[in-house]
Protein backbone atom coordinates (compact mmCIF):
# COMPACT_ATOMS: atom_id res chain seq x y z
CA UNK A 1 0.00 0.00 0.00
CA UNK A 2 0.90 3.66 -0.13
CA UNK A 3 3.58 4.33 2.48
CA UNK A 4 2.58 7.94 2.94
CA UNK A 5 -0.41 9.83 4.23
CA UNK A 6 -0.86 13.56 3.84
CA UNK A 7 -1.93 15.22 7.08
CA UNK A 8 -3.76 18.46 7.65
CA UNK A 9 -0.54 20.49 7.62
CA UNK A 10 0.53 19.13 4.26
CA UNK A 11 3.48 17.26 5.76
CA UNK A 12 4.02 13.86 4.22
CA UNK A 13 4.36 11.19 6.86
CA UNK A 14 4.54 7.43 6.79
CA UNK A 15 1.46 5.55 7.84
CA UNK A 16 2.52 3.42 10.75
CA UNK A 17 2.55 -0.26 9.93
CA UNK A 18 1.48 0.24 6.32
CA UNK A 19 4.51 -1.48 4.83
CA UNK A 20 7.40 -3.69 5.90
CA UNK A 21 10.26 -1.32 6.66
CA UNK A 22 13.01 -3.43 5.20
CA UNK A 23 12.93 -5.59 2.12
CA UNK A 24 11.62 -8.97 3.33
CA UNK A 25 13.38 -10.67 0.42
CA UNK A 26 16.60 -9.75 2.21
CA UNK A 27 15.77 -10.21 5.86
CA UNK A 28 13.39 -13.10 5.27
CA UNK A 29 12.57 -13.27 8.95
CA UNK A 30 9.03 -11.94 9.08
CA UNK A 31 5.81 -13.08 7.51
CA UNK A 32 2.76 -10.90 7.20
CA UNK A 33 -0.52 -12.45 8.27
CA UNK A 34 -3.96 -11.44 9.36
CA UNK A 35 -3.03 -12.37 12.90
CA UNK A 36 -0.65 -9.42 13.36
CA UNK A 37 -3.40 -6.85 13.91
CA UNK A 38 -5.13 -9.04 16.48
CA UNK A 39 -1.90 -9.79 18.32
CA UNK A 40 -1.04 -6.10 18.45
CA UNK A 41 -4.45 -5.25 19.87
CA UNK A 42 -4.12 -7.90 22.55
CA UNK A 43 -0.58 -6.83 23.36
CA UNK A 44 -1.65 -3.19 23.57
CA UNK A 45 -4.58 -4.08 25.85
CA UNK A 46 -2.37 -6.10 28.17
CA UNK A 47 0.19 -3.31 28.18
CA UNK A 48 -2.51 -0.85 29.27
CA UNK A 49 -3.69 -3.20 31.99
CA UNK A 50 -0.11 -3.57 33.22
CA UNK A 51 0.34 0.18 33.24
CA UNK A 52 -2.96 0.85 34.99
CA UNK A 53 -2.07 -1.66 37.67
CA UNK A 54 1.42 -0.19 38.03
CA UNK A 55 0.26 3.43 38.03
CA UNK A 56 -2.15 2.79 40.92
CA UNK A 57 0.70 1.31 42.90
CA UNK A 58 3.00 4.19 41.97
CA UNK A 59 0.41 6.56 43.46
CA UNK A 60 0.18 4.40 46.56
CA UNK A 61 -3.24 2.95 45.71
CA UNK A 62 -3.30 -0.79 46.28
CA UNK A 63 -6.04 -2.48 44.21
CA UNK A 64 -8.41 -4.78 46.04
CA UNK A 65 -8.12 -7.47 43.37
CA UNK A 66 -4.75 -7.89 41.71
CA UNK A 67 -4.63 -8.38 37.95
CA UNK A 68 -1.75 -10.85 38.44
CA UNK A 69 -0.05 -9.42 35.36
CA UNK A 70 3.04 -8.36 37.23
CA UNK A 71 4.44 -9.69 40.45
CA UNK A 72 3.91 -7.25 43.33
CA UNK A 73 7.57 -7.48 44.32
CA UNK A 74 8.63 -6.49 40.82
CA UNK A 75 6.29 -3.50 40.85
CA UNK A 76 7.67 -2.41 44.19
CA UNK A 77 11.22 -2.58 42.85
CA UNK A 78 10.23 -0.70 39.69
CA UNK A 79 8.58 2.01 41.82
CA UNK A 80 11.73 2.28 43.92
CA UNK A 81 13.86 2.60 40.78
CA UNK A 82 11.67 5.42 39.47
CA UNK A 83 12.37 7.37 42.65
CA UNK A 84 16.02 7.40 41.49
CA UNK A 85 15.38 8.03 37.80
CA UNK A 86 17.64 11.09 37.86
CA UNK A 87 20.69 9.07 38.93
CA UNK A 88 23.31 8.40 36.26
CA UNK A 89 23.82 4.77 37.33
CA UNK A 90 20.15 3.97 36.57
CA UNK A 91 20.05 0.39 35.22
CA UNK A 92 17.62 0.45 32.30
CA UNK A 93 18.05 -3.28 31.65
CA UNK A 94 16.89 -4.12 35.17
CA UNK A 95 14.06 -1.60 34.91
CA UNK A 96 12.90 -3.19 31.65
CA UNK A 97 12.76 -6.60 33.32
CA UNK A 98 10.88 -5.23 36.32
CA UNK A 99 8.28 -3.59 34.06
CA UNK A 100 7.83 -6.74 31.96
CA UNK A 101 9.33 -5.15 28.85
CA UNK A 102 7.46 -1.87 29.26
CA UNK A 103 10.37 0.34 30.32
CA UNK A 104 9.71 3.05 27.74
CA UNK A 105 5.98 3.42 28.45
CA UNK A 106 6.42 3.31 32.24
CA UNK A 107 9.33 5.75 32.19
CA UNK A 108 7.54 8.23 29.93
CA UNK A 109 4.35 8.22 32.00
CA UNK A 110 6.40 8.87 35.12
CA UNK A 111 8.52 11.65 33.57
CA UNK A 112 5.53 13.43 32.02
CA UNK A 113 3.97 13.43 35.48
CA UNK A 114 7.16 14.49 37.28
CA UNK A 115 7.68 17.42 34.92
CA UNK A 116 4.03 18.51 35.19
CA UNK A 117 3.46 18.11 31.45
CA UNK A 118 0.15 16.26 31.76
CA UNK A 119 -1.39 19.11 33.71
CA UNK A 120 0.27 21.91 31.74
CA UNK A 121 -0.83 20.65 28.32
CA UNK A 122 -4.12 19.22 29.62
CA UNK A 123 -3.28 15.81 28.19
CA UNK A 124 -5.74 12.94 28.44
CA UNK A 125 -3.99 10.17 30.38
CA UNK A 126 -5.52 7.29 28.43
CA UNK A 127 -4.68 8.94 25.10
CA UNK A 128 -1.16 9.73 26.31
CA UNK A 129 -0.61 6.16 27.38
CA UNK A 130 -1.99 4.86 24.09
CA UNK A 131 0.48 7.05 22.21
CA UNK A 132 3.40 5.84 24.34
CA UNK A 133 2.40 2.23 23.68
CA UNK A 134 2.29 2.95 19.94
CA UNK A 135 5.81 4.35 20.09
CA UNK A 136 7.12 1.43 22.14
CA UNK A 137 5.53 -1.15 19.86
CA UNK A 138 6.98 0.44 16.74
CA UNK A 139 10.49 -0.38 17.92
CA UNK A 140 11.77 -3.75 16.74
CA UNK A 141 12.39 -5.96 19.75
CA UNK A 142 14.53 -8.31 17.64
CA UNK A 143 17.14 -5.56 17.16
CA UNK A 144 20.00 -6.12 19.62
CA UNK A 145 20.56 -2.37 19.99
CA UNK A 146 18.01 -0.13 18.24
CA UNK A 147 15.01 -1.21 20.28
CA UNK A 148 12.65 0.27 22.87
CA UNK A 149 15.14 -0.29 25.70
CA UNK A 150 17.64 1.94 23.88
CA UNK A 151 14.88 4.54 23.51
CA UNK A 152 14.15 4.31 27.25
CA UNK A 153 17.87 4.64 28.03
CA UNK A 154 18.17 7.76 25.86
CA UNK A 155 15.02 9.20 27.48
CA UNK A 156 16.42 8.64 30.97
CA UNK A 157 19.68 10.32 29.94
CA UNK A 158 17.76 13.24 28.47
CA UNK A 159 15.89 13.62 31.76
CA UNK A 160 19.27 13.89 33.53
CA UNK A 161 20.50 16.51 31.06
CA UNK A 162 17.31 18.57 31.31
CA UNK A 163 18.04 18.90 35.04
CA UNK A 164 21.51 20.39 34.52
CA UNK A 165 21.36 23.85 36.21
CA UNK A 166 22.77 25.74 33.21
CA UNK A 167 19.85 24.50 31.10
CA UNK A 168 17.06 23.77 33.57
CA UNK A 169 16.49 27.36 34.69
CA UNK A 170 15.60 28.43 31.14
CA UNK A 171 13.51 25.49 29.93
CA UNK A 172 9.81 25.89 29.25
CA UNK A 173 7.27 23.04 29.50
CA UNK A 174 7.31 22.91 25.68
CA UNK A 175 11.11 22.45 25.68
CA UNK A 176 10.87 19.62 28.20
CA UNK A 177 8.06 17.84 26.37
CA UNK A 178 9.88 18.12 23.04
CA UNK A 179 13.10 16.83 24.59
CA UNK A 180 11.44 13.78 26.13
CA UNK A 181 9.32 12.99 23.06
CA UNK A 182 12.28 13.31 20.70
CA UNK A 183 14.39 11.07 22.93
CA UNK A 184 11.65 8.45 23.12
CA UNK A 185 10.90 8.39 19.39
CA UNK A 186 14.29 9.23 17.87
CA UNK A 187 14.87 5.68 16.52
CA UNK A 188 11.29 4.45 16.13
CA UNK A 189 10.84 1.66 13.55
CA UNK A 190 14.62 1.30 13.12
CA UNK A 191 15.27 -1.71 10.87
CA UNK A 192 18.58 -2.73 12.43
CA UNK A 193 20.60 -1.74 9.36
CA UNK A 194 22.22 1.59 8.49
CA UNK A 195 21.64 4.18 5.80
CA UNK A 196 24.32 2.92 3.36
CA UNK A 197 22.62 -0.49 3.45
CA UNK A 198 19.27 1.06 2.53
CA UNK A 199 20.89 3.04 -0.28
CA UNK A 200 22.79 0.15 -1.86
CA UNK A 201 19.76 -2.16 -1.67
CA UNK A 202 17.68 0.60 -3.30
CA UNK A 203 15.17 0.63 -0.47
CA UNK A 204 12.15 2.83 -1.15
CA UNK A 205 12.87 5.02 1.89
CA UNK A 206 16.28 5.90 0.46
CA UNK A 207 14.53 7.09 -2.69
CA UNK A 208 11.81 8.88 -0.71
CA UNK A 209 14.37 10.94 1.23
CA UNK A 210 16.90 11.19 -1.62
CA UNK A 211 19.60 9.38 0.36
CA UNK A 212 19.77 12.19 2.98
CA UNK A 213 19.22 11.38 6.68
CA UNK A 214 17.06 8.49 5.52
CA UNK A 215 16.55 6.80 8.89
CA UNK A 216 16.19 10.02 10.86
CA UNK A 217 13.58 11.37 8.43
CA UNK A 218 11.68 8.10 8.74
CA UNK A 219 11.81 8.19 12.56
CA UNK A 220 10.45 11.74 12.52
CA UNK A 221 7.68 11.15 10.00
CA UNK A 222 6.64 7.96 11.78
CA UNK A 223 6.41 9.91 15.03
CA UNK A 224 4.21 12.55 13.40
CA UNK A 225 1.99 9.79 12.03
CA UNK A 226 1.55 8.31 15.50
CA UNK A 227 0.92 11.71 17.08
CA UNK A 228 -1.86 12.39 14.59
CA UNK A 229 -3.28 8.88 14.83
CA UNK A 230 -3.44 9.09 18.62
CA UNK A 231 -4.93 12.63 18.53
CA UNK A 232 -2.86 13.36 21.64
CA UNK A 233 -2.45 17.03 20.72
CA UNK A 234 -5.75 17.48 18.84
CA UNK A 235 -7.07 19.86 21.50
CA UNK A 236 -4.19 22.32 20.95
CA UNK A 237 -4.31 25.13 18.35
CA UNK A 238 -3.22 24.07 14.87
CA UNK A 239 -0.23 26.42 14.82
CA UNK A 240 1.01 24.92 18.12
CA UNK A 241 0.84 21.34 16.85
CA UNK A 242 2.55 22.36 13.59
CA UNK A 243 5.38 23.94 15.58
CA UNK A 244 5.72 20.85 17.77
CA UNK A 245 5.92 18.61 14.71
CA UNK A 246 8.60 20.74 13.08
CA UNK A 247 10.69 21.04 16.24
CA UNK A 248 10.47 17.27 16.79
CA UNK A 249 11.84 16.86 13.29
CA UNK A 250 14.69 19.28 13.94
CA UNK A 251 15.65 17.40 17.11
CA UNK A 252 15.44 13.89 15.64
CA UNK A 253 17.33 14.88 12.48
CA UNK A 254 20.14 16.20 14.69
CA UNK A 255 20.92 12.61 15.71
CA UNK A 256 22.27 11.84 12.22
CA UNK A 257 25.92 10.99 12.93
CA UNK A 258 26.89 12.39 9.52
CA UNK A 259 26.06 15.85 10.89
CA UNK A 260 28.33 15.46 13.90
CA UNK A 261 30.92 18.01 12.83
CA UNK A 262 28.29 20.55 11.82
CA UNK A 263 26.97 20.60 15.39
CA UNK A 264 30.39 20.42 17.05
CA UNK A 265 31.72 23.37 15.07
CA UNK A 266 28.66 25.43 15.91
CA UNK A 267 28.82 24.47 19.61
CA UNK A 268 32.53 25.27 19.78
CA UNK A 269 31.88 28.67 18.22
CA UNK A 270 29.14 29.47 20.74
CA UNK A 271 31.28 28.38 23.68
CA UNK A 272 34.40 30.22 22.48
CA UNK A 273 32.43 33.40 21.84
CA UNK A 274 30.30 32.97 24.95
CA UNK A 275 27.29 34.11 22.96
CA UNK A 276 24.71 31.47 23.91
CA UNK A 277 21.56 33.24 25.07
CA UNK A 278 19.30 30.60 26.56
CA UNK A 279 16.54 33.16 26.97
CA UNK A 280 16.37 32.90 23.19
CA UNK A 281 14.18 30.00 22.00
CA UNK A 282 16.53 29.35 19.07
CA UNK A 283 19.57 28.90 21.32
CA UNK A 284 17.59 26.70 23.72
CA UNK A 285 16.51 24.53 20.81
CA UNK A 286 20.11 24.17 19.67
CA UNK A 287 21.16 23.02 23.14
CA UNK A 288 18.25 20.54 23.17
CA UNK A 289 19.68 19.18 19.92
CA UNK A 290 23.09 18.84 21.57
CA UNK A 291 21.52 17.22 24.65
CA UNK A 292 19.72 14.67 22.47
CA UNK A 293 22.92 13.94 20.56
CA UNK A 294 24.68 13.34 23.88
CA UNK A 295 21.86 11.14 25.18
CA UNK A 296 21.88 9.10 21.98
CA UNK A 297 25.56 8.17 22.27
CA UNK A 298 26.04 8.28 26.05
CA UNK A 299 26.60 4.52 26.43
CA UNK A 300 30.41 4.85 26.72
CA UNK A 301 29.82 7.33 29.57
CA UNK A 302 27.79 4.87 31.67
CA UNK A 303 29.18 2.58 34.37
CA UNK A 304 31.22 -0.24 32.85
CA UNK A 305 28.69 -3.05 33.34
CA UNK A 306 25.99 -1.10 31.48
CA UNK A 307 28.36 0.39 28.92
CA UNK A 308 29.80 -3.01 28.03
CA UNK A 309 26.32 -4.47 27.44
CA UNK A 310 25.43 -1.63 25.07
CA UNK A 311 28.74 -1.98 23.23
CA UNK A 312 28.22 -5.68 22.67
CA UNK A 313 24.64 -5.10 21.53
CA UNK A 314 25.50 -2.44 18.96
CA UNK A 315 28.35 -4.53 17.58
CA UNK A 316 26.06 -7.56 17.34
CA UNK A 317 23.70 -5.44 15.24
CA UNK A 318 26.61 -4.39 13.02
CA UNK A 319 27.68 -8.01 12.60
CA UNK A 320 24.17 -9.09 11.66
CA UNK A 321 24.18 -6.51 8.90
CA UNK A 322 27.57 -7.77 7.77
CA UNK A 323 26.31 -11.36 7.68
CA UNK A 324 23.31 -10.22 5.64
CA UNK A 325 25.55 -8.38 3.20
CA UNK A 326 27.81 -11.40 2.85
CA UNK A 327 24.84 -13.71 2.32
CA UNK A 328 23.57 -11.62 -0.58
CA UNK A 329 27.04 -10.94 -1.98
CA UNK A 330 27.05 -7.25 -1.14
CA UNK A 331 30.17 -5.40 -0.04
CA UNK A 332 30.43 -5.71 3.75
CA UNK A 333 30.05 -2.29 5.37
CA UNK A 334 32.81 -0.87 7.59
CA UNK A 335 32.58 -2.04 11.22
CA UNK A 336 30.26 -4.91 10.20
CA UNK A 337 32.83 -7.65 9.55
CA UNK A 338 33.00 -9.80 12.66
CA UNK A 339 36.25 -11.39 11.48
CA UNK A 340 38.06 -8.05 11.24
CA UNK A 341 36.17 -5.53 13.36
CA UNK A 342 36.38 -6.47 17.02
CA UNK A 343 34.23 -4.96 19.74
CA UNK A 344 37.21 -3.30 21.53
CA UNK A 345 38.54 -1.72 18.32
CA UNK A 346 35.11 -0.43 17.29
CA UNK A 347 34.48 1.04 20.75
CA UNK A 348 37.90 2.69 21.05
CA UNK A 349 37.43 4.35 17.68
CA UNK A 350 33.89 5.44 18.54
CA UNK A 351 34.95 6.91 21.86
CA UNK A 352 37.96 8.71 20.39
CA UNK A 353 36.44 10.28 17.31
CA UNK A 354 32.77 10.71 18.20
CA UNK A 355 32.04 10.57 21.94
CA UNK A 356 34.97 12.37 23.56
CA UNK A 357 34.81 15.56 21.43
CA UNK A 358 31.07 15.92 22.03
CA UNK A 359 31.08 15.26 25.77
CA UNK A 360 34.09 17.48 26.40
CA UNK A 361 32.15 20.35 24.82
CA UNK A 362 29.02 19.41 26.77
CA UNK A 363 31.03 19.54 30.01
CA UNK A 364 32.33 22.96 28.97
CA UNK A 365 28.74 24.12 28.44
CA UNK A 366 27.43 22.79 31.75
CA UNK A 367 30.37 24.21 33.68
CA UNK A 368 31.87 20.83 34.59
CA UNK A 369 29.00 19.80 36.82
CA UNK A 370 29.24 16.59 38.89
CA UNK A 371 27.25 14.74 36.20
CA UNK A 372 29.54 15.91 33.39
CA UNK A 373 32.68 15.02 35.31
CA UNK A 374 31.19 11.66 36.24
CA UNK A 375 30.42 10.90 32.59
CA UNK A 376 33.91 11.88 31.43
CA UNK A 377 35.49 9.78 34.18
CA UNK A 378 33.45 6.74 33.12
CA UNK A 379 34.38 7.41 29.50
CA UNK A 380 38.11 7.43 30.27
CA UNK A 381 37.92 4.34 32.46
CA UNK A 382 35.85 2.44 29.90
CA UNK A 383 38.22 3.37 27.10
CA UNK A 384 41.14 2.12 29.19
CA UNK A 385 39.32 -1.19 29.75
CA UNK A 386 38.66 -1.63 26.05
CA UNK A 387 42.34 -0.88 25.35
CA UNK A 388 43.31 -3.54 27.86
CA UNK A 389 40.97 -6.06 26.21
CA UNK A 390 42.34 -5.12 22.80
CA UNK A 391 45.89 -5.70 24.05
CA UNK A 392 44.88 -9.14 25.35
CA UNK A 393 43.35 -9.96 21.98
CA UNK A 394 46.58 -9.00 20.23
CA UNK A 395 48.63 -11.03 22.67
CA UNK A 396 46.51 -14.14 22.13
CA UNK A 397 46.41 -13.87 18.35
CA UNK A 398 49.80 -12.72 17.10
CA UNK A 399 49.16 -14.49 13.85
CA UNK A 400 46.40 -12.03 13.03
CA UNK A 401 48.02 -8.74 13.97
CA UNK A 402 45.57 -6.46 12.17
CA UNK A 403 42.30 -7.95 13.41
CA UNK A 404 41.94 -5.63 16.36
CA UNK A 405 43.53 -2.39 15.21
CA UNK A 406 41.56 0.80 14.77
CA UNK A 407 42.17 1.19 11.05
CA UNK A 408 42.06 4.40 9.08
CA UNK A 409 38.99 3.15 7.23
CA UNK A 410 37.21 2.65 10.55
CA UNK A 411 38.19 6.14 11.63
CA UNK A 412 36.80 7.52 8.40
CA UNK A 413 33.56 5.64 8.93
CA UNK A 414 33.20 6.87 12.48
CA UNK A 415 33.92 10.43 11.51
CA UNK A 416 34.16 11.35 7.87
CA UNK A 417 35.91 14.62 8.62
CA UNK A 418 38.38 15.45 11.36
CA UNK A 419 36.50 16.30 14.54
CA UNK A 420 37.37 19.78 15.86
Sheet with most strands: strand arrangement: 1-2
**What gyration radius follows from the Cα positions, in whole Å?**
21 Å
Number of helices: 20
CATH superfamily of the domain at 75-298: 3'5'-cyclic nucleotide phosphodiesterase, catalytic domain
Low-confidence stretches: 1-36, 45-70, 413-420
CATH architecture of the domain at 75-298: Orthogonal Bundle
What is the helix content?
55-70%
CATH class of the domain at 75-298: Mainly Alpha
H/E order of the elements? EEHHHHHHHHHHHHHHHHHHHH
Descriptive notes:
The chain contains 20 helices and 2 strands. The protein is an all-alpha fold. The chain has a domain at 75-298: Orthogonal Bundle (Catalytic domain of cyclic nucleotide phosphodiesterase 4b2b). Strands 1-2 form a two-stranded antiparallel ribbon. Strand 1 (4-6) and strand 2 form a beta hairpin. Helix 5 packs antiparallel against helix 7 and helix 8 (148-162) crosses helix 16. It is globular. The model is unreliable at 1-36, 45-70 and 413-420 (pLDDT under 50).
Overview in brief:
Keywords: cAMP, Hydrolase, Metal-binding. The protein is built from 20 helices and two strands. It is an all-alpha fold and 420 residues long.
